[in-house]
Amino acid sequence: MKKKQTLGSHNRTNPLTIKTNDDFRPSKRRLVLAIQLLFAIGAGESFAAACILEGTTITSSVTNSVFCNNSGTLTVSLGGTLTNTTTGTLNNLGSVTNSGLLANNGLINNTGMLTTTGILNGSGTLNNTGMLAVASTGTATIVNSSNLANGTLTGGTWVVDGSSNSKSKTTLAIGSGAIATNNANIELIGLGASFSQLTNLANNNGSLAIRDGASFTSAALHNTGTLTVASGGIANIASATNLSNGTLTGGTWVVDNTGGTSKLVVGSGAITTNSANIELIGSGALTSFSQLSGLANNTGSLTVGAGASLNDSKMPSLFNTGTVTVTSGGAVVLAKSGNLSVGTLTGGTWVVDGSGGSNATLTIGSGNITTNNANIKLIGANADFSQISALANNQGTLTIGAGANYATSASLNNTGTIVTTAGGTLELANNKQKLTLTNNGSITSAGTINGNGTSNFTNDGALTIESTGAVSGFNNFVQNSGVTTLKDGGVLSAKSVQFQGGMLTGSGTIDPPSPILIGANATVAPTGMLTLEGNTEFDGLLSIGILGASDYGILNVLGSIDFGAGARIDFGFDRNFNLTDSSYFFRFLFADDIQGLENLTFDYTGLDPLYTTGLDLECQSGRCDYSLLLTRHDDPGKVPEPGTLLLTTLGLLGLAFGRRKVFPKRF
Q: Which of 8, 387, 413, 482 has the smallest C-beta neighbourhood within 10 Å, fewest atoms?
């Protein structure tokens, strides 16, 4: 039997016959076929029976009339031609580079990267959800595309890069008619960039970037997406509904002077109120968006990036109720801002992001900020907001993000919210006096809160120490009310730890060098294994929640525990709790030594009266464990009749919820 693979030019047919038999192994057959096909491509052949485009470089003329996937690289060199016929489909998942002629009379689906510095034309259809770039002296004329319908361009990224083509134009045309609405990503680069269909663009809901000397003008444009001018790009919008009565609304507006002086004009007149998103990057960016010289109110988002500065010496007094962000290399100096008055910062969000290689600097008004009623966020090692170095009252939100190290030289009273994220540090540091961190609000630490060896911490609010967090270096930690939650891995450490009231819960670790005191009004409620690394004096309530046979709270004391008069243990059973065995041990307390058991009273909240209880203490090798034994006095496989269950429940109600003293035998 013989199999044929036919390749031919437009003028002739050159059949290739591949002989196969039992001795011709598949690997050899594929090798011979590949050599013959690659030779045909270089020799200017055409093909119809198989896709051989992927991984090839076309130097002459090749025709595709079949379905073809390219997930690698395909190159049409200068002088080469690839013709996709009416029956041909090219799915580009990888990279196609055309320096010659790509004539598409069939279908091209581009989900990868298609770059043409040559000619892309044809009567077929090209659909783009990846990136299509026209560069240098290239032209792309796409007759049909599902990306453009009824004047709206959707999907994909379209780049017209005429940065190396100042004498002529780098041209892109999609379908027919003007593009009135952009829902895609468009980049115009360089003086030679030409995308004339954008002349009447009325709505930008996607991304439109003008870079490196390219220009964009519009008689009227409404922006709800992102419009960027960068490195010498120019955008002039004669009339913009975004600007009305001095207020800029909607969308994001980026002026980036990093590679050259850009220019942005939005409508006419000064912008006195920003309710949009504005980003200024690079030296002179504020001048490049000169309408901001009248800015008096920020209710939106205003970001000052590397190399840019915002200085109100030539501006009105700026009042912020939105978000002002300064990133590494940027500087914001608002000497006249009304947000700071008599040491109190009010209104808005202030983000100082020094996560880059240089300082991000923020100055508001003059003098120190002693009270925060705003939202402050510090990020990175180079966050510079020196005005809060003596912060005494936080009534708003203070966030210390990854890499930031914030130190206050004053005692800090928190009635608002303080957050340290992983890698962030809050430190109380004053070599001349002992400081106190007082929490009557909410503090969450996934980073570090450090008392510097001498400060005290009083918690009467909500303190949460996450799995990556630590509260350490304090002289005394005292809780009179409120809740301290230790997540698994979280650590609380001080020279003295006292829980006089409120609740301690979670499954982390408390690590003091001296005895831990649990006062009569305090509750300890482990949700997993809660570890106390030290001798413990326990006069309060130990609440052991029991959800199931292996899901219950455990108190682990690395030292001795001494229960004082009035100490209590409450076992709280989940209402869906059900044992499959007739008896079970819950080992809920571990310690080196357990004293004062005669002082304990016990409650069994939610325990089904079908169970009886017992307590067991075992000590060996310097460690003791205290266990609860439950015994079910019916067959757990049999469910009582509802009437019987009701009578049993009523009859044993006193037993289920009674209080009793137990005097276990010490082993």
A: 8
